[in-house]
Design a protein that fits this description.
mainly alpha
């Protein structure tokens, strides 16, 4: 498999995991674990797995002391702030609103890439992002989403999360050129594991571990290992070999994969309308991934 296919495969796996995460996470919280406590658990479990893999496979150290400040910024924006804002926002708004607002991420990625990385804009890339965004919104919501005063605060938190995560994808790009993806992920999560404690300890101390059934432990393992450890490592790998815009654009595949998961589980059905919206999304992502002459 050549490098380009590996990047697309990594991003596809990330989207597949995220597509299943929200359905699975809802089975865990808030009944067994509250949102902030779940985030703390995600980060701490991920740290253990990342440390083991890094120590046994890479064992790379940070060679430039100035990079520690950059890793701190990555940890704040890419691990702690975006997770806390999203889960808090999701608890204050409806899932449809949150899904639509997260579609802003690739747009902010393009903006930050132009500002921070001096990445020149390409008309085809902009068109691709807009096409994929339209297809994703139509697939997820049709005409069912609604923004009002009752969901306003949650909508703001989710939007801030989209902006923050977009910044992280762009800001982390230079670091991925210097260090292995696992190294960057390890340091970000080590720092994040400390920073998240003041926000989540109260909820974490309320967890009644004995009341958690085996099935829920499986769901917790999926979220902490799969949608935290694995997705961050794969995203870091993709950032090393592709533009932040391409990495960000794969968020549009999440509703597609979530739809297929719902269909296979018998909770939804495939029709011509959904097929058309899915084709629109794939067309948009394809246009973003094409190498074109910048403007």
């Amino acid at each position: 498999m050549n490098k380009t296919l590996k990047v697309h495969f990594a991003l596809f796996i990330v989207s597949l995991i995220y597509g299943a995460t929200f359905t699975i996470a809802k089975e865990v919280m808030p009944l067994y674990i509250k949102p902030f406590a779940f985030i703390m658990l995600r980060i701490w479990v991920a740290v253990v797995f990342i440390f083991i893999f890094h120590r046994s496979i890479i064992n790379e150290k940070i060679t430039d002391k100035t990079d520690y400040k950059k890793l701190l910024i990555c940890a704040v924006f890419g691990v702690v702030a975006n997770m806390l804002l999203f889960f808090k926002g999701l608890s204050l708004t409806v899932p449809i609103n949150a899904s639509v607002l997260m579609m802003n991420t690739p747009i902010f990625v393009v903006v930050f890439a132009a500002i921070l990385l001096k990445e020149k804009l390409a008309i085809l890339k902009i068109i691709g992002i807009l096409i994929a965004a339209i297809g994703a919104v139509l697939l997820m919501t049709g005409t069912r989403f609604s923004f009002n005063s009752q969901t306003a605060l949650g909508d703001i938190f989710v939007t801030l999360n989209a902006i923050i995560y977009a910044f992280y994808l762009v800001y982390a790009k230079p670091l991925t050129q210097k260090y292995h993806p696992l190294t960057i992920t390890l340091y970000c999560f080590l720092i994040g594991a400390i920073l998240v404690v003041p926000f989540a300890w109260s909820e974490f101390s309320e967890i009644i571990w004995k009341s958690i059934p085996f099935k829920i432990w499986i769901y917790i393992a999926f979220v902490t290992i799969g949608s935290t450890f694995l997705t961050y490592v794969l995203n870091a790998y993709a950032l090393r070999h592709a533009s932040p815009s391409l990495v960000g654009s794969y968020i549009y595949l999440q509703p597609v994969l979530a739809t297929f998961i719902a269909i296979f589980s018998g909770k939804d059905e495939l029709n011509l309308e959904k097929i058309i919206f899915i084709i629109i999304i794939f067309l948009g992502v394809y246009l973003v991934s094409k190498k074109v002459t910048p403007i």
